[in-house]
Every structure is written in structure tokens, then in C-alpha cells.
């Protein structure tokens, strides 16, 4: 999906602008639109926004929660990206390094992106915050801290371009945004956006753990007298051909060695391993 990154300080109108864009692309451009909401991800994780951001502020004891939410947003975006439909990430996206990661992701998937900056005065945003329902409001301390650490997008930076800044009184430049996504050439991936060999200890652990789960399921079925059509519980997958334990161990080693030079999504490992077994046995 061509990607639209929404960004701005708290209560700057990002969600309102998101749904204006959604309506335009669905009704006038006849495109399917998906929205990933940072607030929805945060809420589903069971966090209250003030408590959540309080522990994520500079010098706080723990910022793991915020990194986890950003990671969840990025993973969802990776699953949804394609070359036709529109994906909008509705959130503060206040860290330029995080916007750069999303830029690298779209280069990897060869799909265009643009950035929409909701640019309104701080006190205007605070007034909008005060008009919200009480449970949706930021405290003044959290609001000021988020404003202080906000990294404003720059149209001269390739990861923020093309950049569309919109004030409270402005109308979105819908046609220009459309052209930036559908009439521009898709970016070409370069060395910085290619998947490097993965040396992550956690990734290797998960790779070994998932492939071992598949093998254990096959061995358990064999002990029950099953000789082919091995169902893998929890994954809705089937290894179709008969096999020996020695074959399984050899193919697992080969798959793990191959996978170290790729960067598969963890939720794809089981399906890819089963496909590899069905092809190799």
C-alpha cells in the first residue's frame, strides 16, 4: 500500500485529517484504505495514555512499553503494504529516526509514501485537548513533555518528503497527495534497505524454537503411528510426506543456516519451514 505518515504534536488534528484522507481515497479515488492507529494499539495493549507516556519520557525508568507499541505499529504496516491500496499510520510519529525506519520499509517494498504534518500552535492544540472527554485528555505535564521532544519533519529530508503541512484552517491538498502516491515512481531499494544477515540472538532463538516445534509435532505423530500427513498444531499446517528423524534434523539444520542470511517475519517461519520440508522430502 502506498503509505501516508501522519505526524504532529498531541491534539493537532491527526485523526481528523486521517479520516478526511480515508474518505477522499475511498469515495473519490476508489481505493481501499487501511488505518493503523497508534492510540488503538496503545489501548489494546492495556495502557492509559498519560501513564504510558509518563514512563516513556526522557530519563524515565522504563521506555520499553513505547518501543513495543512502535514495533507493533511497524509490524502491522509491514503486513499491509502493497502497491495499490492506501495505508495511513495515524500517530504522533514524533521521532525522525522512526520516520526514517518507515521510509526504509517503503523502499524495501517499492511503494511510495508521503508525510502529512498537522502544524498548529501549541496553545491551540492544548485547547483542543481540554475539549476532549476526560479519559481522552493529556495532563499538562505529559502534553508539554511530548511537545518538547517532538521532532518537526523537514521537507529537505528524503524520509519526510514529499511533505504536506496543514494548519487548522487549511484544507488538505488531496489531489497533490494522490499524485505523490500514484503518479510518482516507486523508490528503488538500495543497500541500506536490503535485509542484512540476521545475527539477532532473539531471532535465532525464535528460528530454532519454531522449527523445533514443527519437528516435535511430527515426531509425536509418528509415535502414534502416523506415517504421513502430519498436522502441526497451532499453525494450521501439514507436512505431507513420510520422513525419518534423521531427515528432519538434517533439513532443520539446512533451513536454519539458510534463514540466518534472510530476515523472515517470525510469524512466517513455521509456514516457510513446512513448505521447505514438503519440497525437500
Characterise this structure:
Helices cover 48% and strands 11% of the residues.
SS content category: alpha/beta
Poorly predicted ranges (pLDDT <50, ≥5 residues)?
Answer: 58-62, 191-199
Integer-rounded radius of gyration: 23 Å
Q: What order do the strands of the largest sheet run in, or round the barrel if closed?
A: 2-3-1-4-5
Oligomer kind:
single chain
Cα end-to-end separation: 37 Å
The helicity comes to: 40-55%
- DSSP, total strands: 7
Mean pLDDT, as a whole number?
84
List the keywords.
281 residues, alpha/beta, two-stranded antiparallel ribbon, 11 helices
Blueprint (SSEs and pairs):
Layout: E1 3-7, H1 14-27, E2 33-37, H2 38-44, H3 49-54, H4 64-80, E3 86-90, H5 96-108, E4 113-118, H6 122-130, H7 140-148, E5 163-166, H8 174-182, H9 201-223, E6 230-232, E7 237-239, H10 245-259, H11 269-280
Concise description?
This protein has 11 helices and 7 strands.
